Amino acid sequence: MRPFALLHRDGADHVEVLTGDMITVPALDDIPLHRGRPTLAVIPYRQITERGFDCVDDGAPLECLVVRSSHTEPLAAFPPGPLSVSGGGFDLTDDEYGTIVEDVLRDEIGHGEGANFVIHRVFTATVDGDPVAAARAAFGRLLASEQGTYWTFLVHTGTRTLVGATPERHVSVADGITMMNPISGTFRNGSGRLLDFLRDPKEIEELYMVLDEELKMMATVAEQGGQVAGPCLKQMTHLTHTEYLLAGRGSLDVRDVLRETMFAPTVTGSPIENACRVIARHEGRGRGYYAGVLALLDHDDQGRQTLDAPILIRTAEISPEGALRVPVGATLVRHSTAAGEVAETHTKAAGVLAALGAVPSRPSPARAEAESPEVRAALAARNDDLARFWLDSRAPGALTVPALAGRTAVIVDGEDTFTAMLAHQLKALGLTVTLVPWAAAAAAGPTGDGEPDALDPTGRREPDALNPTGHREPDALNPTGRREPDALDPTGRREAGALDADLLIAGPGPGDPGDPADPKMAAMRALVTARLVARKPLLAVCLGHQILASLLGLRLHRRDSPYQGLAREVDLFGTPRRVGFYSSFAALAPAADLDTPYGRVEIARDPADSAVHALRGPGFAGVQFHPESVLSRDGLAVLAELLPEVLSGVISPATNG
């Protein structure tokens, strides 16, 4: 049978029928994009290696349907059909999956490797009869029974058949606007009160964390970052989720948008680079197309590129021999329990499995509660303590601080693209910002003069060994030669060579700041040390703050309970500030001030456990929290107050005396 695709998009009264030629390409840059010839790309998870991130490579191909003809048919043309599935069950038992959940909570989140991680399992069975006919029957059933989907689809490539009903847009581009749609929090319809779900701290924090992670991506692909709308409910037949919508104006090639947003935090975790390491470590097998995307690439009537790319979740893959796979995952956060996440995988698989006849279907409950004033108020209240920087629109220059206007800053990225969000905030305050990966900064040496040995007093490693991800010069990231690296990054990301700016920011990143064997930590310590010795302005954030604190003589401590995705009001040098934390480590200080070789340091610490929230000295400051996070209601105000002090080298008197 020739390749084809059936697509029903949210709100449409018809199904799009696409036919054409199927080709396999090695990379996103090779996806055909010709005006008048749409392409539907089936992008596997393994393409994450294009960003230099880890994965278990299962060889799943990137297949593209180059459309030769398309037409629409009414929904009635695809009635539910009969099909039979036999021998179903998960590849991991509930107990085995629960053990992995506990391992990740203890060994990864508990040790500062990230805020949340998505681990999957796979329901396997055998489809009786013709696989494509079975997929058509399931497609009809999903059209008839599933609600709230972004795409309901069937794609037959000739080598595999995918059928599903995904709730989530990953990324789209239309009319010059890039949009993302993070969805998280899972309520099993009929299992209790929706209002209780909306007030559950785990579900609230889970959505905030994926919102932050997708804002990082939007900060890379949109010139002004993403503006947030929502939250709203995403109601499906078996589940209800909560969601936000992000939008920003961008001009990147849509294939670059796909690359820079691989893949959604709702199916990987955060920070994304380390989430990929954790997934590979604990899953130990490839993901196939699970967590990848379908991507329809085209042009509009004015010749502008367009993109519509839903996430490949709630999807069944059927081989020509009838082998059925339905991958499904749960988002693990600090409040997770093994039993709760096991139950979530069953719930998420239910819609597709019911359409396949593998489990009984359950009718959707009444929508009255979802439309109640109490539910609307609970949703609106979720934004009360979020950063207005990401929720409000404003005129250019409205937030400029005169003392910062025209000054330059370099942010050293410690493998957490929170730095892209931080760059947008600093630009809004008036700074000119350059973003440099830690390994490129290491290769340049602490002063940017290209002497890497200064970062490694032991002489044990060459600069390349400081970069285990395999990132090298910018050209290696762009083998097609289609465009210069600068065009890929509107945030101002560059390679090393500009470290000697007015202000250096040692940025956030995952890992143990006290690990002497970690090359990233050695490089960051050398950069911070060099800045202190040279008496040049320095701001340190999260990981950078921990390294700065240790160099000032403070002890680092791994928290008993991780501060991952946690918003708190803290006393910041006499002023109460609500800020967001993503950390498992903290510096401890016995007093509110400290004498150091670099001058007297003032410390904002927690009176309960002596954990350091922030510190400041002549020409430098550090903050344990993330001022750029959507959780940091007062983050921008903190930057506006601290940075002029750092640049001037003069600390203002604390308001508490």
Automatic annotation (TrEMBL):
What ranges does the record list as Basic and acidic residues composition bias?
A: 458-493
Q: Where is the Glutamine amidotransferase domain?
A: 498-641
Provide a GO biological process annotation.
Answer: L-tryptophan biosynthetic process
User: Which PROSITE patterns does the entry mention?
Assistant: GATASE_TYPE_1
Q: Which residues form the Chorismate-utilising enzyme C-terminal domain?
A: 95-348
Q: Which domain of life is it from?
A: Bacteria
Write down the top EC class of this protein. lyase
State which Enzyme Commission number(s) the record gives. 4.1.3.27
Key words of the record: Aminotransferase, Lyase, Transferase
What InterPro entries does UniProt report for this protein, alphabetically? ADC_synthase, Anth_synth_I-like, Chorismate_C, Class_I_gatase-like, GATASE
Q: Which reaction equation describes what this protein catalyses?
A: chorismate + L-glutamine = anthranilate + pyruvate + L-glutamate + H(+)
Name a Pfam family for this protein.
Chorismate_bind
Q: Where is this region: Disordered?
A: 443-493
Q: Which GO terms describe its molecular function?
A: anthranilate synthase activity; transaminase activity
Q: Which PANTHER family match?
A: AMINOBENZOATE/ANTHRANILATE SYNTHASE, ANTHRANILATE SYNTHASE COMPONENT 1
**Protein's name according to its UniProt entry:** anthranilate synthase
